[in-house]
Amino acid sequence: MLRPSESTAFHQIDGWLTLEEADALYDAAVQVPETGRIVEIGSFKGRSTYALALGAQVNGIAKMVYAVDPFTGNPGEDSFFPTRYKADFLRNLDQFIKEGTVTPLTMSSAGATMLGIRPNLVFIDGSHIFADALFDMTAWWEKLLPGGRMAIHDSQGTHPPVRNALAAFLERNNLRVESVTGSISWLTKGA
Fold this sequence. Notes:
Blueprint: H1 8-11, H2 19-30, E1 37-41, H3 47-56, E2 64-68, H4 86-92, H5 94-99, E3 102-105, H6 109-113, E4 121-124, H7 130-143, E5 149-152, H8 160-173, E6 179-181, E7 184-188
Parallel strand pairs: 1-2, 1-4, 2-3, 4-5
Antiparallel strand pairs: 5-7, 6-7
Helix pairs in contact: 2-3, 7-8
């Protein structure tokens, strides 16, 4: 199967995820155990979802990607996102949805925590407001299975609220970032 950086369909999806970051998400999804679960917080038009779904399908293993997004944009960004983008997401992920690899959950991150999903991999790229980002990290860290990985987008570089939320989360939990890919910080939950 093609990696995201090699996929024509991936290149046609709008978004800010770099090729290096997409391939890293793909690799992380490949490593999720058979029948494992992947949760994505913030899907936009599906660029990262596509990368995760490609990795989830390697070797034909049944891994589920839950794409959580209310598809309303971030508060105060209406001029940047003048139209809602759920239709673009559904069109870009149509085949993965039909095959059962991707399950879109049109809801908030907080709402999704109530569904009882225990993921092996969590990708956080939701609201970039400090309190929201800190909530996402804290709530989904609790749901993450031991040995699971968390990837936090925009936690390096030009997004101070997300970077500051990660710093607060790390301090509260006595954790360290294990590696960085582009603007993604990676953590692994111990046993």
